Amino acid sequence: MGIVYDEKNKTISLHTKNTTYQMQVDRYGFLLHLYYGKRAEGCMDYLLTYYDRGFSGNPYEAGRDKTYSMDALPQEFPSLGTGDYRTPACIIRNADGTFSSDFRYESHSIKEGKYALKGLPAVYAESHEAQTLEILLTDRATGVQAVLLYGVLPEFDIITRSLRIINAGSGQIAVKKLAPACLDIVGGKYDFITFYGRHAMERNFQRLPIGHGISKIGSLRGTSSHQYNPAVIAADHETTEDAGACYGMAFVYSGGFQSEAGMDQYGQTRLLMGFSEEQFSYPLNPGEALQAPEVILSYSFQGLGQLSQNFHRCIRTHLCRGKYKEAVRPVLLNSWEASYFDFTGDSLLKLAKQAADLGIEMFVMDDGWFGKRDSETRGLGDWKVNEEKLGCTLGELIRRINDMGLKFGIWIEPEMVNEDSDLYRAHPDWALAIPGRMPNRSRHQLVLDFSRKEVVDSIYQQICSVLDQGNVEYIKWDMNRSLADIYSSAADCQGRVLHDYVLGLYDFLERIVERYPHILIEGCSGGGGRFDAGMLYYTPQIWCSDNTDPIDRLEIQYGTSFIYPVSSVGAHVSASPNHQTGRCTPLKTRGTVASAGTFGYELNLDKISEEEKDEIRKQIAEYKQNASLVQNGLYFRLTNPQTENTGAWEFVSEDRREALVQAVSIRQHGNMTVDYIKIKGLKENAMYRETGSGKLFNSTALREAGFPMPAEFGEYRAYQWHFILEDDGAR
Ligand code: GLA
Question: Which parts of the chain span the membrane according to its record (predicted)?
């Protein structure tokens, strides 16, 4: 099956349907990386070149052989101290104060099924769907062990990597740097594709050549961040959406991270993904272990589109969990942009009633329902229903909303506390703060020390007692600031706090998921500030951005689509002019863009006309008709909205019999030139009927010559075409 050990050549090959990853235990016991690319059999150690490496060092046992240098050989798990001066995947401060590690192969085992990681999110699979490779490496001088884990999912063209550092020595060590994924590529020239941004403008696509030196992105914020997403791609300079080689890495982790890409002195490329090094120094006493989070890897030789589809399928079906993972999500109305903090129970019920009349299926009560929370400045930490504001109990409110035929959802932000709260007054030491320094405030709030179990337990109890008050079917789990002031009174070493915080968060989430398996959780962090594969294990959808402007969303959702499936992208229709940008857009455009995600509304229904209400009813009906294709179909990017006049994308059913193309015109000019959208993924040379016009089109012509954008008067027009296979006519 997937993993093959060749005793003669000492190679281990990880085969997926279309790709092969190969490594070799070499003559000195180093674990070298040989190949990751299109599926291939045989031994690829001919790729290793042994030339005189001049001043690059040689391991002692190489004797006078200057051709053997770790400074030039591609490796699976490079560390400091072996003579490799490139950026390492691992730095350990040993018990004797030194920083060298020299990991050599001891043994390996191959098992059916995919490994799981205790306390951490990870891709899962049935035992027949995956295999696991475990390789034990040891630093013989210190006894420190590295257990490398590889999960192979052949049908998905996915390989996962993780590792465990075990202190099998006799003194305390500290892990200073750890990157569970390292990819050394010996030849070729690559671009580093990353997704940068800011609050309300997340995951902008950036593609820059990997040159000599190191390009590094990451987050020092304790969360994966709005600023850089923990997913990267190395793509051959020539690679396009539809052709060429590319490698993707998605970190299944929601804390700080770093990804480095660099070309070495010999023109070889190294790509790393792992923990952020800043404020990280994880202590391990003898016998203790540090389990690194997992990285999902994929390779495509058919361009970025195929790479994205590999990630989408894996994340949607083998990382997301729960009853909603592949189900069409309920169409929701969220109260935030409708009324912010300014509501009463009656005004919520009125809004819910209006929502029900439009065909909306779930009502979400956002921030402001608890404690004395009527502004950003207070209340966080006091998860007690403000019955005075609601005019009734939560149970009563939910019952009345359920009676309207609506599900009920609620907003929480468990990791936070305002100084003006009963919780903070009772437990000021529960907030992260460094003794002798005043803490940084952000959005007037402090962060609770989730590295401490008693803090997590207490908030968990509070949240459960709210959720137990009625039929809650959805939670929006928010997190509205970055961590600062990293100090925990409970920690033996402050270098562990950031990671332990994330473990505390995951523990909390896991308990909620287990206790309330029927609840759909939507992640959020000021919009998309913690949009990562780690959160998607607990929350199958994430509020993509606080920016609901459909034109900005074209770019945000475009960048997001490189790794994350549409089923994970929270997207709502909001008011025009938009509350974040002031831009006016047609309701149809707002609906079209939001329908390319987990669809909902977020606006004051009092302020819309009867015609708009009718249009919303139609939008919902149409959305529901297409929702299964949208959430579970193959996703194709048809244009780049950052640089082109049109934003266009497409969903194609797995059997290629049906396709939905959506397009938005971004810039309008007099006497417009015509954009032709090249429609992809259909059966070759087959006839498809476009249901709106009833006309027949040839799929090859649609791909090669494209489909013309209409030249209608007016800004930001949206279009949608639905193609159904009519005749694939044995041509
Ligand atoms: C964050 C979220 C918003 C909203 C507010 C409430 O900004 O991203 O959607 O829930 O918090 O305070």
Answer: none
